[in-house]
Write a structure and sequence with these properties.
Number of strands: 0
Largest sheet: none
Oligomer: single chain
Helix content: over 70%
Structural class: mainly alpha
Length: about 650
């Protein structure tokens, strides 16, 4: 029979229990049965069962001891709780009494109740100190409930504010373990925000006080340390640090707005930020301008030093300067031009550096300027960019480029001004992009917009005058080079060959060399210009090219075979003119080709040819002038056709 505790449940009869055990044992029945009585077997069964009963007894005893221990512990804990509740209640009662006595004592006359008032005040402060100590201890133990109870009692005491201060101080202990004060602050505030509502009756006030304490102590000290160490030694790093610290502080403030800090938390946080940065922000734009002024000058000087170039004073008022300006604006030969050896004195790397410095300055200006000062500050940065990039670099390169343009009568002149034009245009596109992308958003809604647009227009117009002057003089040089080719290569006998029957009908050497030169210059113009400027410049070059050839052809007299050669030349010039892709230029050469037909047409057909579609609208004096170039003009009495 299995030995279990339920066998001993009440009512229990020992004799019946033994009888039942013997009966169930084979050979153990007292009245016999199927098996004979076996005393040994019965004894063995009793002994085994006694061992089981001993084990069961030990097991039950251990369980009893465990339950007694648990009961004792719970009784002790319960007693402690009762004591705590009683003590807590006595504190509350004592606090309530002393608070009322303190209020009453305020009304008592000092001369009669000085001792009483002093005792009440002493007891008041003692109890207040005890409560704060109890709150501090509870906070260290992490007992939120006890903290809440003590805070509720202290709420009516003058020391309640001190209780909050203690809480705020202890919250920050061990909170700043990373090397990132902003991230640590965000984590701390997130943690405290969850707890403060469980402890204080006005959690938003405590939370606001915590944040104020952090800003006025931890953050302010961090900002001061970072900025003061570079303010006078490294202005560039100082400006970067100021921008970074201000950005991270405002970013932290944005995170903190998710907490309940009272009715006007945005104004509250703005004031805290201002209290930290106001002294730095007041002098920001002056330091920004001075840094940009110095940095820009250094970038420029470093570039010209790398070119081993000493900048020439522009507009200094010297006699040489006066001569140079006259030479630039006229075609008078006032001495040799400057040889720049093909150097444009324009640097993409320099431009990128200046624009990058200005971009950073605009970003800092946007972040660090007071909204009312932002347009004015951004405009002052823009003026520095104009001075460094447009005046000191682009305009100076244009001046040097103009000085390097040779006179129209120079031979084999290298025309680098178009390279200056190309690079100046590329640079100005970058300047214009920064103007639109970074400056415009800062000034678009302010009166400074008109001022900025006017300044930009003024700069563009000043550069365009120099570009136009340089392009005009470059085109004159091109025409001068064509003149030189024609003067040296074109022979009078080209159009009056001695042997009329032994002439190969093709264009002349002079024509071939002029066309080759013109084709190179057209390609140069296309690479140097963009947009409508290409057509404008090529139109002007084409008109001057046509005028030169027109005037050149009128210097010769033509035999019949010479006239055919002139037509071949003009046909080649016309083929060259197609490269201009300007209808007007092609039309001019079409008309010139038609005029050259007057050099070879039979006398009887002159009138008919002059009435043709391409010549009918031309001045008859012009037609007559071309007919007069024929060697047979007098002998064939061709003048009668124009009388």
């Amino acid at each position: 029979m299995a030995t279990t505790a339920h066998l001993f449940e009440e009512p229990f009869d020992a004799d019946e229990y033994i009888e039942r055990l013997a009966w169930r044992t084979p050979g153990g029945g007292s009245k016999g049965g199927a098996e004979a009585f076996d005393p040994k077997r019965l004894l063995e069964e009793f002994q085994n069962h006694i061992e089981e009963l001993k084990q069961l007894d030990e097991k039950i005893q251990r369980k009893v001891e465990k339950l007694e221990h648990q009961c004792h512990r719970e009784a002790k804990e319960f007693a402690h709780k009762v004591q705590d509740l009683q003590r807590s209640n006595q504190i509350k009662e004592a606090a309530d009494i002393i608070q009322k006595l303190h209020l009453i004592a305020q009304e008592l006359p000092f001369d009669r109740f000085a001792d009483v008032k002093a005792k009440i005040a002493s007891k008041y402060h003692d109890l207040e100190r005890q409560l704060i100590q109890e709150f501090t201890a509870a906070q260290r133990r992490g007992e939120i409930g006890r903290m809440r109870e003590v805070a509720a009692v202290l709420l009516h005491f003058k020391g309640y504010a001190h209780c909050v201060d203690v809480y705020i101080k202890q919250c920050q202990e061990g909170a700043y373990v990373r090397n990132d004060v902003f991230e640590d602050t965000a984590v701390l505030c997130q943690r405290v925000n969850k707890q403060v509502g469980e402890v204080f009756s006005s959690p938003e006030t405590v939370m606001a006080k915590l944040i104020q304490n952090i800003f006025e102590n931890k953050l302010q000290a961090h900002v001061k340390e970072k900025l003061d160490e570079t303010r006078h030694s490294d202005v560039e790093q100082y400006l970067k640090n100021l921008y970074d610290l201000y950005t991270r502080t405002t970013g932290l403030a944005t995170k903190l707005t998710e907490f309940n800090l009272g009715s006007d938390k945005h104004t509250f946080l703005s004031k805290l930020i201002k209290s930290i940065f106001s002294s730095y922000l007041e002098s920001y734009i002056d330091m920004e301008r001075e840094y940009l002024r110095t940095r820009g000058a250094m970038i420029l000087q470093r570039y010209y030093d790398s070119k081993n170039h000493q900048k020439r004073p522009v507009g200094a008022g010297s006699i040489q300067d006066l001569k140079e300006r006259i030479r630039q604006r006229t075609n008078l030969p006032l001495g040799p031009s400057i040889d720049t050896h093909g150097e444009t004195f324009l640097s993409p790397e320099l431009v990128v550096n200046l624009l990058q410095e200005t971009r950073h300055a605009f970003e800092r200006c946007h972040r660090l300027s007071d909204p009312s000062d932002l347009p004015k500050n951004a405009f002052s940065i823009f003026l520095l960019l104009v001075d460094h990039l447009c005046v000191e670099h682009i305009d100076y390169a244009l001046e040097i480029g103009l000085s390097a343009i040779p006179s129209p009568d120079a031979k084999n002149a290298n025309l680098y001004f178009l390279d200056v034009v190309q690079q100046a245009n590329s640079i100005f596109h970058l300047f214009d992009k920064q103007f639109n992308d970074q400056l415009m958003p800062l000034i678009s809604s302010s009166p400074k917009l008109a001022e900025c647009l006017h300044k930009k227009k003024e700069v563009i117009e000043q550069m365009e005058v120099k570009l136009d002057t340089g392009i005009d003089r470059t085109l004159n040089c091109m025409v001068g080079q064509m003149k030189h080719i024609l003067a040296t290569e074109q022979k009078k006998t080209d159009f009056r060959p001695e042997d009329e029957n032994n002439v190969m009908i093709q264009y002349t050497t002079a024509c071939s060399k002029v066309c080759a030169y013109v084709s190179r210059q057209v390609e140069h113009v296309r690479k140097s210009m963009d947009g409508k400027n290409v057509d404008t410049v090529l139109t002007e070059l084409g008109i001057r090219f046509h005028r030169l050839i027109h005037e050149h052809l009128q210097q010769y007299s033509y035999s019949s075979m010479g006239g055919m050669l002139a037509i071949c030349d003009v046909a080649e010039y016309r083929r060259c003119a197609k490269d201009f892709r300007v209808p007007l230029v092609l039309q001019l050469f079409d008309t010139l080709h038609a005029l050259c037909n007057l050099l070879v047409v039979a006398p009887d057909n002159l009138k008919q040819v002059c009435s043709g579609e391409q010549l009918t609208n031309l001045d008859r004096n012009l037609l007559h002038a071309f007919v007069q170039l024929r060697v047979d003009y007098r002998s064939a009495r061709l003048g009668r056709h124009f009388s």
